[in-house]
Structure to design on (577 residues):
């Protein structure tokens, strides 16, 4: 028997959803046009006025927003409500220069938490459950989002935040957590610790909601087998609201986009042209209910497929597949967004060359990032101390830029593999999209 | 008075020093002394050679990062206590030694010590005053 958090909306007919989306889109476009100069200018540049947008069918006429727009407009440029109406900010992980800050009114927080509540209920959650949230709390949306959703469902919520595995396991066993929310890699790590410590019989988990990074079907099977749970995917990004933009149901075959709040499109990343359902392309979202920070046609850079095939769970909202890659070079390491260009910036500032290579791997279910950079005559010293000191400086500069530790390894000149004269920038050994 | 040392960046992996030694040999340059300092990931190979410029050129051509460092060469009698006198002088005069290594030659009865210090001039002065013979670049070339 399938449970829903908001049954009427989650199982509405396609026509009802379209109707709802059209009304809300028109309202949002008017709201943004009136209150946000940045997007108004983009619309003017494209020769579009709110009058041109009468229904979802007109969505394609609107200009795209990209992460670059969000950075350019930082911090207040994309707000559509006065600060006095806002109650919260969240921010993307990582990066000093390239942070994205999103603003929320109480209404925005409510709808976001509703989205997360739907995900928890779809994973079998009820008010009888004990929901252990081990996503990070703070600027990162993972913890606050699932925490709010868990409250709405009425679960007993354990706001654990990330890390401190011994304490996680203690609360998990002592308070008999039944649902766990964290990154899939941390889930795999916890599963291993539980197995090693012989705690399998003491845990009461039945479901896990895992997101914020890419994971494979193989990983799902491993975690499910080790913990004896069903593992559900959840998708989101700070720019749109955070986790809960889309979530998996009992069918475990893609994530339902919360279409009453967000319109999903798939576009050709080269031309921007909207692609028909079922075709692979870049995922684009439009917020149609948010007040403070409603981004319109935001390009996620995630490569994905949408499907309206009837779902066995009874939900009617369109399903998105797991992202199959990126249309840019962004890496997600330990749930943190990392751009090679940021690493390059640090290296050049430290007097190094742009001959570098980023090697991302996963050891014991935890992401690692190594930055190999070629030695230069300027950097070189005959003293080990000098070189070790330099390495430490680069490590510290990278940590401060990325927000996570990256191990620097200085290598011999010309030792980084070049393809057609250019160094291969990124080697991702995790095979996340296979 | 100083002598020239080649300092070469090497990664900690098999065959690195071997290929450097071969390049130098192929150029007809002899290695007089050698020392390696290493960490977990990289090392610094330090060489005293018969022809610094030639060795440097050939290594640069082979994409090595190589620099020439001025170091102090000291000739000490090859008898017990020879080194300790030199080290005592350094410490008494507050001269910090970054690193040192020694070598001997077949021809003489002397041992040689290469010293890398912050202040070459001061070290040379202290050692000369104490009557210790410093090695010149010519001495090295003539070995």
């Amino acid at each position: 028997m399938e449970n829903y958090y908001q049954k009427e909306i989650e199982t509405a007919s396609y026509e009802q959803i379209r109707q709802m989306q059209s009304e809300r889109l028109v309202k949002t476009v008017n709201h943004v046009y009136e209150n946000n100069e940045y997007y108004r200018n983009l619309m003017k540049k494209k020769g579009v006025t709110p009058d041109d947008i009468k229904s979802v069918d007109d969505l394609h006429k609107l200009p795209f927003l990209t992460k670059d727009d969000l950075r350019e407009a930082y911090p207040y440029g994309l707000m559509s409500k006065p600060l006095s109406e806002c109650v919260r900010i969240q921010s993307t992980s990582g990066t000093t220069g390239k942070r994205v800050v999103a603003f929320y009114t109480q209404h925005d927080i409510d709808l976001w938490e509703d989205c997360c509540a739907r995900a928890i209920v779809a994973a079998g959650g009820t008010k009888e459950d004990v929901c252990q949230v081990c996503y990070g709390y703070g600027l990162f949306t993972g913890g606050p989002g699932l925490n709010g959703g868990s409250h709405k469902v009425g679960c007993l919520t354990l706001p654990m935040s990330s890390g401190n595995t011994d304490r996680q396991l203690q609360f998990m066993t002592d308070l008999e957590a039944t649902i766990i929310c964290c990154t899939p890699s941390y889930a795999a790590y916890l599963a291993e610790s539980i197995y090693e410590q012989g705690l399998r019989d003491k845990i009461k988990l039945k479901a896990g909601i895992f997101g914020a990074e890419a994971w494979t079907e193989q990983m799902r099977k491993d975690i499910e087998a080790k913990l004896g749970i069903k593992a559900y995917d959840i998708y989101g990004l700070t720019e749109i609201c955070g986790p809960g933009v889309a979530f998996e149901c009992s069918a475990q075959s893609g994530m339902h986009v919360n279409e009453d709040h967000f319109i999903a499109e798939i576009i050709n990343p080269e031309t921007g042209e909207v692609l028909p359902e079922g075709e692979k392309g870049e995922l684009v979202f439009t917020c149609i209910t948010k007040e403070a920070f409603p981004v319109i046609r935001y390009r996620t850079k995630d490569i994905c497929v949408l499907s309206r095939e009837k779902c066995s769970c009874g939900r009617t909202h369109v399903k998105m597949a797991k992202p199959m890659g990126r249309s840019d070079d962004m890496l997600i390491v330990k749930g943190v967004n990392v751009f090679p260009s940021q690493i390059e910036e640090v290296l050049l500032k430290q007097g190094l060359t742009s001959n570098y290579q980023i090697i991302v791997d996963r050891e014991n279910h935890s992401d690692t990032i190594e930055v190999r950079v070629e030695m230069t005559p300027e950097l070189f010293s005959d003293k080990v101390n000098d070189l070790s000191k330099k390495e430490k400086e680069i490590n510290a500069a990278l940590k401060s830029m990325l927000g996570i530790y990256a191990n620097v390894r200085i290598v011999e000149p010309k030792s980084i593999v070049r393809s057609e004269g250019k160094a291969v920038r990124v080697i991702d050994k995790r095979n996340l999209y296979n | 008075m100083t002598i020239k040392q080649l300092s070469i960046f090497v990664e900690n992996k098999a065959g690195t020093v071997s290929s450097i030694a071969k390049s130098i040999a192929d150029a007809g340059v002899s290695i007089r002394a050698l020392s390696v300092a290493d960490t977990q990931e990289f090392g610094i190979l330090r060489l005293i050679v018969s022809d610094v410029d030639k060795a440097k050129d050939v290594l640069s051509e082979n994409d090595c990062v190589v620099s020439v460092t001025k170091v102090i060469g000291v000739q000490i009698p090859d008898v017990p206590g020879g080194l300790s006198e030199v080290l005592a002088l350094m410490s008494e005069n507050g001269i910090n030694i970054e690193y040192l290594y020694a070598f001997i030659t077949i021809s003489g009865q002397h041992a040689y010590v290469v010293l890398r210090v912050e202040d070459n001039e001061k070290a040379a002065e202290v050692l000369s005053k104490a009557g210790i013979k410093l090695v010149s670049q010519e001495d090295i070339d003539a070995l």
